[in-house]
Amino acid sequence: MSARDDDARGMTPLTAPPAACPQALPEPCAAWSLHAADLARDLAPRIQPWPADPATQALVLDGVLLRLREDLHVPAVDCASSVDRAVAVGCALGPALRGHHVIGGATAAWVLLGGSPPDPLELVSPSHRAVLAGVAFLHGELAPGDVELLGGAPITVPGRTALDLLRRRPAHVALPLVAALLRSGHLDAREVHRRLGRLQGTPHTRRAQELLERAGAQAESEARESTGLPSAVTR
């Protein structure tokens, strides 16, 4: 046997490097909580991309489908409760969901009231670099009393939701949503007045106070029209 053969016998044969294992995607809503992830297991498969065509648009207009984000839709029957709707928001964000994302603004109102989801979805985030297609971020700090959990999903409490709507959103968006929250009993106008009182002198506070008065009057008027009785706003 040659010296070359002896050398070759002691060499480690060349082999291809092991293939990289595909990284598993996180469970939907796991960034929020185990409870939200558990609820999302059944709901997430129901949220699917639908073609942007007249047939899909007709289903949305008829209330059969709800458009959550971009081309992602969910059957309305699968979002019958506020918990369903809160978890659906997290599912619609998919792997982009972060633990500090909090459902807020018009989307928080939709979670409580139902109807058609706002476009874009609205989240509160402390990160000023957050950018996500189909999502509007309301940047700001949240105190512990500003957030509650609904199905394991973080959502601004109605008082904070109303505050953000009244101070940050156009009147034609804020008024009907705040009026609906008042009329449904989810929102206490006195809490919003207290929150606005603590912000006295800051930008948009006077406008928010005026819009709150108008929203209260609108809620009372709508309640009288539908029942002939004073609304819960004033009783």
Please give a structural write-up:
The protein has 9 helices and 8 strands. The protein has helices at residues 3-9, 34-43, 54-61, 82-93, 105-113, 158-168, 171-184, 189-197, 205-227, and strands at 48-49, 65-69, 72-75, 102-103, 121-125, 135-139, 147-150, 153-156. A hairpin with a 2-residue loop joins β7 (147-150) and β8. It is globular, with a radius of gyration of 25 Å.
Query: Helices and strands, in N-to-C order?
Result: HHEHEEHEHEEEEHHHH
Instruction: Give the amount of beta strand, in percent.
Output: 5-15%
Strands, total number: 8
What structural class is derived from the secondary structure elements? alpha+beta
SSE order and pairing:
Blueprint: H1 3-9, H2 34-43, E1 48-49, H3 54-61, E2 65-69, E3 72-75, H4 82-93, E4 102-103, H5 105-113, E5 121-125, E6 135-139, E7 147-150, E8 153-156, H6 158-168, H7 171-184, H8 189-197, H9 205-227
Parallel strand pairs: 5-6
Antiparallel strand pairs: 1-3, 2-3, 4-5, 7-8
At a glance:
The protein has nine helices and eight strands. It is α+β, with helices and mostly antiparallel strands and 235 residues long.
Jot down its keywords:
235 residues, alpha+beta, 3-stranded antiparallel sheet, 3-stranded mixed sheet, 9 helices, globular, disordered N terminus
